[in-house]
Design goal:
Layout: E1 5-9, H1 18-32, E2 38-44, H2 52-61, E3 65-72, E4 75-81
Parallel strand pairs: 1-2
Antiparallel strand pairs: 2-4, 3-4
Length: 91
């Protein structure tokens, strides 16, 4: 089993839209993760002040699943997994 990817975005300075920045992070993870593998994204809540539903939407549009959403002090921790595609048998 591979180790979990940890993306630490607590101290980034993005001059653009924070939502688009996070969208690109999720897109990158959807490409980088193999099926069944997980990732944790850590960010400062002040820089990315979004609620769980926003992150669920980002995960869904990038074919990831939000496994856990947790706020710890000034940080937000998002745990994602790339679901395993079910193989269908042809008859």
């Amino acid at each position: 089993m591979e180790s979990m990817i940890v993306e630490d975005h607590r101290y980034i300075s993005c001059g653009g839209d924070p939502f688009n920045y996070m969208k690109s992070v999720f897109k990158g993870l959807s490409i980088e993760l193999d099926e069944g593998n997980e990732a944790e994204v850590i960010m400062m809540t002040e820089k990315f002040p979004y609620e769980q539903k926003v992150f669920e939407g980002l995960a869904s549009t990038t074919k990831l699943k939000l496994k856990e959403y947790r706020k710890e002090g000034e940080e937000t921790h998002i745990f994602l997994i790339k679901p395993v595609k079910m193989q269908t048998e042809e008859v």
